[in-house]
């Protein structure tokens, strides 16, 4: 979740120096959702990071790429 996708994306692909992010470069954006309320965005992020969310990503998003 971020309020500035461009900066976050640049950081993950260029500036990050350790951890999960650096192992899987380059990152690409394949799905974006917008929320008016931060609480709703955090809820969706938590959902996507769950097993059920991973399954949804595999079935709904990744077959298109």
Query: If you average the pLDDT, what whole number results?
Result: 85
Secondary-structure element string: HHHH
Unreliable stretches (pLDDT < 50, length at least 5) are none
* Helical/strand content category: mainly alpha
Considering DSSP H and I runs of 4 or more, what fraction of the residues is helical?
55-70%
Q: How many helices does DSSP assign?
A: 4
Biggest sheet descriptor: none
**Can you tell me the overall shape?**
globular
The amount of beta strand, in percent, is under 5%
Instruction: Estimate nothing, just give the exact number of structural domains.
Output: 2
End-to-end span in angstroms? 22 Å
Number of strands: 0
Radius of gyration: 13 Å
List the helices and strands and how they pair.
Blueprint: H1 5-15, H2 20-23, H3 38-48, H4 51-61
Notes on the protein architecture:
The protein is mainly α and 65 residues long. The protein has two domains: 1-30, no CATH class; 36-65, no CATH class. The chain contains four helices and no strands. It has helices at 5-15, 20-23, 38-48, 51-61. It is globular.
